[in-house]
Amino acid sequence: MLRCVFLTAEMILLIVFTVPLFNGIFNIGNALGIFISIFSAFITIYADKAADIIKNMFRSIGGRVFVSAAFLILGAAAAYVSVLSGFMVSAQLKSEEGAKALIVLGCKVNGNEPSRMLTRRLDSAYNKLHIEHDMICVVSGGKGSDEQYTEASVMKDYLVKKGISEDRIFIEDRSENTDQNLRYSAEILKEKGIDKAAIVTDGFHQYRASLLAKRYGLECCAVNAQTDSLTKWLVPTYWVREWFAITKEYIT
Fold this sequence. Notes:
By secondary structure, this protein is an alpha/beta fold. It has 2 domains: about 1-90, no CATH class; about 100-250, Rossmann fold, CATH 3.40.50.
């Protein structure tokens, strides 16, 4: 019975990490998720044989060292990503109080239209700007090799069409990644005497964005992008990918 429960959970996990493939999304997040799901299911199905193999390995010193090291590494990795996930959740809950500006992080655009993910960020930014009339906004994103227009210009056009005044929106169109998004946006805000801003991005992205913002002397809080039925399926993949991206930031 317990084996069936584990196997069902592993199959659900496999489906969750496979769904992004049908949307053209494949990265280290769902690659690792798919691998772990399949590997775990294999261990569950052949649990007795796996147990026998481990017992046989423990008969030699080398085998005991290998198995012990493997379990130690897995335990440490599980503890690490658990703590990291806690930081990621906490970053999403940072109060917006005192923020005088928004920084909307860019994402892929299709022609002169924002992608689905970027639209969600922009809609969240609009909702905030519509309420806070004194708040300004920096739209941040350059032009990718497969894009016709800069992400920032498309983002500004979208917000203006929704009714946000142009003089409240400032363009940062040099950046090519999240680090540059925050660096160049911080420069714009510092010129205006602003040292606290709310970052508008997906929830799983908030912690890494806050690390980068602090690097450039900017105090930040979070405005999380709205979610929809599709993006809920994508969150696990991007969440796992963030573990690696955050670790890279720690190292560098």
